[in-house]
Amino acid sequence: MTSTHLTTPPVPEENDQMANRVMRKVAIRLIPFLGLAYFLNYIDRTNISFAKLTMSEDLGLTETMYGLASGLFFVGYILLEVPSNLALHKFGARRWIARILVSWGLIAALMAFVPNATWLNIARVALGIAEAGFFPGIMLYLTFWFPRAVRVRLVGVFMVALPLSSALGAPISAAIIQYWHGLFGLEGWRVMFLVEGIPTVLLGFAAWFYLTDRPRQAKWLTNEERTWLDRRMTAEHAETADVGHASARSSLRNPTVWLLGLTYFGIGYGLFAISFFLPTIVAGFAEQFDTTFSIAQNGLIVAVPFLIASAAMILWTRRSDRVKERMWHVIAPVALATVSVPIAMYMNTPFLTMVVISITAVGIFSALPVFWYLPTTFLTGAGAAAGIALVNTIGASAGLLAPYMTGWLLDATGSSKAGLWVVGAFMAMAVALLLVLRTRLVQVEEQRTTT
Q: What per-residue confidence (pLDDT) applies to 3?
């Protein structure tokens, strides 16, 4: 390994056959289920962006009030991320993930009955409290099952649920609002909240019986496979502990963890701004380009950048695992998004605008799975639980700022341009921090591989 790359060691050749067989079994068992949970997670978090198209008039929301309601989700989410992940480490993933799914699904469904803006804000805070710890919990859980050499690729397969939730969720949500309006005597946006919240509750009950906490408890593996995987992961965690941070206290005090969190804030600002306001941007084409789309057509248009990003994410993470390089596989796509995002609003047709927004989405989503490999290079045990949660907490705070700031700028200027320039500035900050982190993490990796 050279000092110019953050790399991962290959799986030893003598274990290739066993490794391939076990990884295939574990991936087939866990990734689709967790991916479905993440798919529902992001739909329930962001479907308010489509509800807004008719909900704002029903509840009397301005752009700023909508931005506030969107961002309030992250208040409880931020406060409880670290405690929730430590609870998962203590009580086990099966119980804790099931609890999270059931509680957030119930609240997501009950949002169908909010009578005014105040109750909408309360429901969004409650939804954030219920969801707290889900994503960092899954990131921690995957470190129990997948060795470093294959982790980025498989995390990429899991995280493809993120853009897919928008690619598929956008037209589904829009169609429910437009065509199921009046079902149960409810407005279309209320029906959408109700219908999309119920599957999460059902999946939560299934998680209690389906998930397995650790490899040594996996009855769906043979004795030989369980032993091999348990030993492999135990050795890998011990290796990380030798050079890293195994306690929650040391992890929370580690400057590299905070730098990673600030980097994720910059990336997350772009993610949340696009996720919560892209339907509004497309609706704005009516005034900008004298082009009108129905709610259902809006959903189909919004789906395109996320669908393209889904394919790019899979290809990029496979490349990262194939060449066993990480840092530039985060820096390059974030830089691409940084350059492209402010340009979008200066295109002179809806088609060109969506092309540039698609490039931005490719950059953001391609960076995410590789980024989440970085904390696991020096965190393990309770330190990983606390550190991963802290990184996600700092990043998630962008979800509080981005929707509110974007909505306020939209109200203040009457245009999306200012908001997207702010997105570009925060993502440029992420690129700068990644260049700083590159040196720190390469040193950690070199120390780990020589001990």
A: 39
